Amino acid sequence: MHGRRRVKPSAEVEKLRKEKEATKIKEYNDLVASCFEKRDKNEFDNDAFTITTKILSQNPDFYTIWNFRRSILLYGILKECSEQDKQQTLSTELGFLQELFQLNPKSYWIFNHRRWCLEEIPNPDWNMELKLIGKFLEMDARNFHAWDYRRYVTFQLSSTTKTSLTQTEFDFTTTKINQNFSNYSAWHQRSKLMPRLIKEQNLDEQEKETLVNKEFELVKAAFYTDPDDQSAWLYHWWLVGREIQHISLLGAYYNPKMRQVVLAFDDEIGMVIPFQVTKKIDDNSPSSYIEGMWRPAGGELKHDQLNIDRSYGFVWIFTFFDSVKDDFTELIVTVKPEFIVPSHSEVKLTRTMQRHCIINDNYNLENESSSSLSQSQDTLPIDTSERIKLLQREISMVRELLELEPDTNLLRELKYISGTNMEENSKIDDEVVTICDHLIKIDKLRTKRFEDLRSKAIFESATKSLVKLVSKELAYNDDTLQYQDSTFSLESKNLTIIPTPSILLYITKLNLSNNKLTSIQFLANLINLKEIDVSNNCITSISGVNRLRNLRYLKIQNNYIKNWEEVKNGFIGWQGVECNIYISENPLIENTNEIESLKIGWENEIKECGDQLKIIWK
Amino acid sequence: MGILNGPRRLEDLFVNTDAFPTESLSVQTKTERSVYKLFKAVRDEKSLNTIKLNRESHIEYISDGLKGLSKYLVVLDASKPWLCYWMLHSLDLLDYELSTGLIKRAISTISKLQNPTGGFCGGPGQISHVAVTYAAVNALATSGIKEAYDLIDRENLYKWFLKLKRDDGSFIMHEGGEVDVRGAYCVLSVATLTNLITPELTAGTAEWIKRCQNYDGGIGGVPGIEGHGGYAFCGLAAMEIMGKTDLLDIPLLLRWASSLQMQMEGGFQGRPNKLVDGCYSFWVGALFPLLEAILTKRQYEKDVANSEDTQCIYRPLFEREALQEYILIACQSPKGGLIDKPGRGADHYHTCYCLSGLSTSQHHVIYDFERAKGEDLDSGARSLLWEEEITNRVVVGDPDNLVKPTHPIHNVTLPNVRKMIEHFYGKREL
């Protein structure tokens, strides 16, 4: 119609058109009626067959007619006919479908009927099917019905000929991508073929590397042509792969004074089934269960041991019941992945999580872990060191692109790739920080996200050395703690979050002043804290400290605490002893009414539960 | 914020045309230009605040359709309940009061399409089909009257559903038909509305749907095939019905879904590097209320368990205004009805899904966890917990453009979902 002027049809023409249309509809309805009549009488004859042909040519979506047509073929036309005739009839049928395809390339029903024909035909010509579907994908390279059908055909063809088609199919996707690199259907198909190719062809390391490198070259060619292209980036993302993040147990110890077992994880976890705690009295005796209760360090004590109710925490505490005797030489805690809910679904629980931590009479921790990386069909089969090499190369590639096109979203990808690196690599952390600094400036809509990301990198980099220490240092008992102070500082780093507080578990004096923290709820995990400095942050309320039994100093000056309620909630059910709280330079202090509420509230509501608490606001 | 008042000039939103001209790029550029022309006119006239949803002309378009369809729609002869549903639901969204005569006619048409062996079919004498059954039940739900609900033969419907189920947990679309994730969604949505969900019906289905999710987060029609907006909706909604969304990688699905909103057009594409299409306003758009509820739920459970007192409700995770701009400026046919993209003609399918998408972007429909109280509710009760967060409405253009809120799982307006569920489950407190 383009470029042609439309003339409004005259009344005469319109009338004729309507009449013609009415005749057509009547013809069609008559056909359907006679077809159903035949069906109801079970007349599976040639007449019926011809009628279905007529109907389906007009309406290939008429699934009931397709079903009837199959019945006609099965119980009428093909019944008791020779193999040769059967072959002939079904070949004609395939020809009919091919005609219909021309007008309806996305019909579920035509594909469905075609599969049926090929399963019935004595000698299916799968090679011809493959050619046909190739033509289809020339007409529309994104037709997912056709891609699905292609997978079906290649499966059938390779099972009949007992030869693998992985290489030819792989080459087919290459052709499609060369025709149009924005063809995500082809990239997607490639992600399915690539792992199979490597496996089937039994490539050695050198060959595998060559293949993988060629793959990166291909995808790179697409980026350099159009750095905004979605398809290539998605495939690149797959190619680079994502490490499965495992939850690990950072450490565990027994505190004889409190009669508690403490476990520290590197993610906030929920407990579905309580971990079993058993003891051994001597080497020869069998182990027996210990009764007690689990709770997250910051959470409520649950009265029913079985009802953990999905509490979450980085640090979990098991308190013995009073009846338990201290007569053991060894404690065994069994932690299985199925007992745990990770805090977010990006973390996968795999068998690697399965650990038994044994705490023997020296309260030392031993880990028995099986660390085999599970390799799924959907990832590129390469090992960790290869992946690290690959990541480093890709990072420099993205960096190069970034200079070419500073205004694109590629920066985000670099962040992502860096994030996947398992090796603690401070160079990468530094780079992430630099990039985030830059992103915070140019992408105002995502400032918070990049600030959190940067905090994560800074924190991980700074606490790297602590991770090993955790398990070592945790092997203390409560008495030594009284004399050994460990200090840690992360001041003036612009931190907005503390991603893994459990790493700081053994720290007694912590300095997080001059950051941009908004909450101190994470402190609930740090049960050994004596002094915490969070002055000069953006904290709006006091929380997470009411169970910190050893806390002596809480420095929270110059934050955003506006009223008495925000102070009060932090001290409900206070379990600590003597503690000084410094809250000067908060908005609360500048408001005389609020100071008054604070004074009265403190006297009446807090003093009762913790008479050794001292608040300093000047 | 939207596109027209967004942080970047319209002219900066074109894809890079210096790049090597592939087929995908050239059709994309063409589409962008056609949308740009319409957006630019609105920007230059500063008429965004007065842009109107042409309610009357859409109602007229649908009413004309109800009178009779032309021969070009012969392919829909096997989909009569679909037409009924698209038209009735569109009218319902537009807050057009359905006349008793019209409702009676719809019920009478649909009642003739129910087979004694269970399920509904596309036209007289045809065999039952899962998608058609979904459309029929949604149309009956939209009619909002008891007489309509009662005509559903639940006993045989259930038996028929079980006949369509395969050992791997998936469903075929009809006897002798194909398998894909639409089957699972249609069966489960209908079974939820009519109180037919049983462990027998859902066994293995969630595990099968999980296999349809790809490395990029998208959900395809069957395991191994690339992700697609329509199938992703079916997969996620089915998982939500079964309470099994934990089996999916939700952040990854969110990332994928977000990448489908177009930077210039504001509407959604159905797959990466494809063109915008008005119908994905619902198929992709409705993924967001579901994703927001799942994320809110995770946060909520965590907070409750830790006795923390945060009121975390995830905000809409897509650009609601941008989507409305696309629908209002680029998808309204001047002759009434809504369309895929500029240059295309209106049809009832696009009218229904553009309006459903408009509803999804105007209203923030959320899941009420407080009322769920962590109890193990059946899927019918859970469907009742979806409600509009009234304080979070966004209406682009004329304030009268507001349409009725639709249910993010069933795509029937909220009051009509409630009526039907209360009918089949009995009155309940929720």
UniProtKB/TrEMBL annotation, chain A:
Matching InterPro entries: Leu-rich_rpt (IPR001611), Leu-rich_rpt_4 (IPR025875), LRR_dom_sf (IPR032675), Prenyl_trans_a (IPR002088)
UniProt KW keywords: Leucine-rich repeat, Prenyltransferase, Repeat, Transferase
Its Enzyme Commission number?
2.5.1.60
Reactions performed catalytically: geranylgeranyl diphosphate + L-cysteinyl-[protein] = S-geranylgeranyl-L-cysteinyl-[protein] + diphosphate
Q: Which GO terms describe its biological process?
A: prenylation
On whether Transferase is a keyword of this UniProt record, the answer is: yes
Identify one Gene Ontology CC term for this UniProt entry: Rab-protein geranylgeranyltransferase complex
Question: One MF term from GO for this chain?
Answer: Rab geranylgeranyltransferase activity
Q: Its biological function? A: Catalyzes the transfer of a geranyl-geranyl moiety from geranyl-geranyl pyrophosphate to cysteines occuring in specific C-terminal amino acid sequences.
Q: Which family does it belong to?
A: Belongs to the protein prenyltransferase subunit alpha family.
Protein name (database record): Geranylgeranyl transferase type-2 subunit alpha
Automatic annotation (TrEMBL), chain B:
Report the cofactors: Zn(2+)
A molecular function GO annotation = protein farnesyltransferase activity
Q: Which domain of life is it from?
A: Eukaryota
> What GO CC annotations are associated with the protein?
protein farnesyltransferase complex
Catalytic function, reaction form: L-cysteinyl-[protein] + (2E,6E)-farnesyl diphosphate = S-(2E,6E)-farnesyl-L-cysteinyl-[protein] + diphosphate
In this chain the Prenyltransferase alpha-alpha toroid domain maps to: 53-412
Q: Coiled-coil ranges per the record?
A: none
> How are cofactors bound according to the entry's free-text note?
Binds 1 zinc ion per subunit.
What is this protein's function per UniProt?
Catalyzes the transfer of a farnesyl moiety from farnesyl diphosphate to a cysteine at the fourth position from the C-terminus of several proteins. The beta subunit is responsible for peptide-binding.
Subunit (UniProt):
Heterodimer of an alpha and a beta subunit.
What name does the UniProt record give this protein? Protein farnesyltransferase subunit beta
The organism of origin for this protein: Funneliformis mosseae (Endomycorrhizal fungus)
